[in-house]
Amino acid sequence: MRFVVDLEKVTVVLAEAGDVREVSVVVAAPLHASAGSEATVHRLADVLVATNVGTLEEDGTARLRADAVLFHAAGQVDDDWERRFAEACEDRPSGPVVAAPATVVWPTDS
């Protein structure tokens, strides 16, 4: 599954929800955003928290909230998806999260 983030419009959209094994956050805008820019990294962290999707970890990956993924996946997934997704999650003191950290892909990575 892939969360596509627009840092300018402050939007987060779930794409490819069916694949619970590959988890990523793709920064789609602005096109100059990069992991090397403290301002855009901070902006991504703010957008993930403000949209209640998750948090940015110190290592540059994202930790996604399970309830946010369920909300965004509603209507996009098959009957078996919730079981597979539950297996891909773990409980934390702050609540259930996707166990695998999400790789963050920046526009400047390509």
Report, as a whole number of angstroms, the end-to-end distance.
Answer: 19 Å
How many β-strand stretches? 8
Q: Helical stretch count?
A: 3
> How do the helices and strands follow one another from N- to C-terminus?
EEEHEEHHEEE
* Biggest pleated-sheet summary: 4 strands, mixed
- Indicate the structural class: alpha/beta
Poorly predicted parts: none
- What order do the strands of the largest sheet run in, or round the barrel if closed? 2-1-3-8
Using only CA atoms, what is the Rg? 13 Å
Helix share, percent: 25-40%
Mean pLDDT: 94
Q: Judging from the principal axes of the Cα atoms, what is the shape?
A: globular
What fraction strand?
Answer: 25-35%
Summary of the model, kept short:
This protein is α/β, with parallel strands linked by helices and 110 residues long.
Model description:
The strands form 3 sheets. A 4-stranded mixed sheet has the order 2-1-3-8. It starts with a strand and ends in a 5-residue tail after the last strand. It is of the alpha/beta class. The protein has helices spanning 38-50, 66-73, 81-87, and strands at residues 2-6, 11-15, 24-29, 54-56, 62-64, 89-90, 97-98, 103-105. Helices cover 25% and strands 26% of the residues. The chain is built from 3 helices and 8 strands. Strand 4 (54-56) and strand 5 (62-64) form a beta hairpin.
Task: Output the keywords.
3 helices; 8 strands; 110 residues; single chain; 4-stranded mixed β-sheet; alpha/beta; two-stranded antiparallel ribbon
